[in-house]
Amino acid sequence: MTPPHRTQPSLAASSARIFDLSLGQMLWSRRSVFLAILLGGPVLLAFVVRLLSSAARFGTIQVNGAHVAGDAVFGMMIWLLYIRFIIPILGVFYGTALIADEVDDKTITYLFTRPIPRSAVLLGKYLAYLACTVLLVLPSVMLVFFLIVPTGGGSIGQAFPSLLKDFGMLAAGLLSYGAVFAFVGARLKRPLVVGLVFAFGWEPGVMLLPGYLKRLTVAYYLQALVTHQMPQNSAVNTLMQIFREVPSALVSVLSLAVIVVATLWAAGRAVERREYVLDQ
Amino acid sequence: MSDVIAAEHLSKWYGQVIGLNDVTLTLPAGVTGLLGPNGAGKSTFMKLVTGQLKPSKGRISVLGEPIWQNPKIYFQIGFCPEQDAFYERMTGLEWVTALVRLNGVGDRDADAMARRALEAVELLDAANKKIGAYSKGMRQRVKMAQALAHDPDLLILDEPLAGMDPIARRKTIRMIRDWGRAGKSVLVSSHILHEIESMTANILLINQGRILAEGNVHQIRDLIDEHPHTVYIRAEQPRGLARQFLAHDDVLSLKFEDEAVVVQTARPDAFYARLTDLAASGEIGVIHEVTSPDDNLQAVFQYLVKS
User: Fold this and answer.
1) Pick from B50, B90, B149, B244: most CB atoms within 10 A?
2) Given an 8 Å threshold on Cβ–Cβ distance, is B99 in contact with A110?
């Protein structure tokens, strides 16, 4: 036999190898199939809207009685369906399961008995989560864009730059929610429940309240990155505008970066120190 | 050579439950068998030795270094766990290669090392088959391949023969003995004395979280002969097998279960040797699986603890 290789790979190299190992498993998991179906929801909705607006009676789409252009409807869908619903769902279901899946499948032993830091396992799987979710979200958003924007005489060419910004915002959402829920999965018991409560209880709740609590959400920083104008003529929107306090884009980006780095570091530390007792 | 594994007042408990209780021992280089019934603390000891668990009390060092949170030591260790867990959609070659790459090996070298390891466990022909399609014995062997692919100094094998057919079992035993002769150290656990004895005379007896005895324990062999040994054999032709067994007076009883025959024998050595010859001859069709319940050993341990 040739002499064994005994140079410890760096954190980045180890993470890249875990990424290679995990991406295929993640892409073809039952979770991905379920979430791909979920991501088909907005496409189906966009298809229905397109059909209705194509009919003679509906030239443009109306929201709360006001005529709204296709690109504004697309913007609303990005914010309400993707950023506030689908991205947190993806973050919760993948993020909390990064290590838990390997523990449940009892395959974690093979990764934790290799000469790589345990945090590299978490980081590699986090990168695989990002790649996997981008591959799931991208086609859905593209299809919604091409179906919705032309309604009401909207121009795909003119709206395209804002689509790129939306992709950036979605990526920021996936990065942040994934990191937060990776920490929840690494540190807490019942991470799925905690994650769902955070995403759909805590975040929407404190976003409606005045004060500083909303700064303890991811959504607060993401909303500063929204480029689309929302329809403003409903009572709820008027009320929300009173409490709406949006940080600058720079502050948001920096804050999201801090959230990602801090939660990933804490998650990595938790994985390094935790004992995983597998049932025989 | 210095001790391969050294434990000093090593204890591990899970809440109120004691997994391992104040174990002090040193394991020399070579092949050592860890023998104990189910729940004796074998797996806890294996997990402490492989750094998956942190000692609640005491210390453990492997190859002269502490193992907990010391990943670089895994260059020198290969671990074959007990659990039947895999990435089912990967082929055997893809899986072993991916794990070897985690040792910092380049793609081409990792592929070559994985192929060599699969060849060593005689699985190269099935290297490109999905693990999900492997038989129980093949799954055991691919687990062994990932443990030895990076050419470690110490192999830790948790129940490596479980579910293997007689021929694979014989080959694996020979392979483990060969590793020992080649200067490798091997810690192998089992609940079957006969299996361990066929690999090494250096045995560590564990029960209820405590080490009962260590060293060359030939006396245990006499004890096992006094207690009937049960073997479960799942085969293509269980009735044909039973006819062959009945011709020998060491077979005490026989019963049929679905596609299997369960045999009680007074002389496991002779029985396993005959079974392997029968499997190799192909006279009685394919033997899919051979297992032995741990109540064989439990009886011996009860005797030991009482005496």
Assistant:
1) B149
2) yes
Are B195 and B173 in contact by the 8 Å Cβ rule? The answer is yes
What domain range includes position B82?
5-221
Q: Are residues B10 and B155 in the same domain?
A: yes
Q: Specify the CATH number for the domain of residue B139.
A: 3.40.50.300
Are residues B74 and A17, on separate chains, in Cβ contact within 8 Å?
A: no
- pLDDT at A235 exceeding the cut of 60: no
**B266 to chain A, closest Cα gap in Å:** 30
Range list of β-strands (E), chain B: 5-14, 17-27, 31-35, 57-62, 65-66, 77-80, 154-158, 185-190, 202-207, 210-216, 229-235, 251-257, 260-265, 287-291
Q: What is the pLDDT of residues B51-68, one digit of tens each?
A: 999 999 999 999 999 999
Residue of B103, B158, B159 to mutate, interface with A, max A Cβ within 10 Å: B103
Which residues have CB under 8 Å from A220's CB, separation 6+? A207, A214, A247
Chain B environment of A115 (Cβ under 8 Å): 71-75, 102-104
Per-residue pLDDT band for A247 (boundaries 50, 70, 90) equals confident
Mean pLDDT value of segment A206-230: 84
- Dihedral angle of Cα A34, A39, A41, A46, to the nearest 10 degrees: -160
Same domain, B216 and B231: no
Confirm if B147 and B157 have CB atoms less than 8 A apart. Answer: yes
Q: Does A30 contact chain B (CB < 8 Å)? A: no
| pTM confidence score | 0.83
Q: Which residues of B touch A105 (CB under 8 A)?
A: 85
Q: For chain A, state the CA radius of gyration.
A: 21
ipTM of the complex as predicted: 0.83
Listed residues B221, B252, B280: the one ending a domain: B221
Same domain, B52 and B111: yes
Closest Cα in chain B, distance from residue A26 (Å):
11
Total number of domains in chain B = 2
**Helix spans in chain A (H):** 11-27, 30-54, 70-76, 87-90, 100-104, 108-112, 118-148, 156-187, 191-197, 203-207, 219-223, 235-243, 249-273
Are both B243 and B109 inside the same structural domain? Answer: no
**Contact by Cβ (8 Å): A274, A186:** yes
B213 and B243 both lie in a single domain = no
- Which amino acid is it at A276? Y
Q: What residue spans of B121-233 are helical by DSSP H?
A: 136-148, 166-181, 193-199, 219-226
B248 and B181 both lie in a single domain: no
**C-alpha of A198 from chain center:** 14
Reduced to 3 states (helix: H, G, I; strand: E, B; else coil), residue A254 is helix
One domain, residues B143 and B255? no
**pLDDT at residue B225 greater than cutoff 90:** no
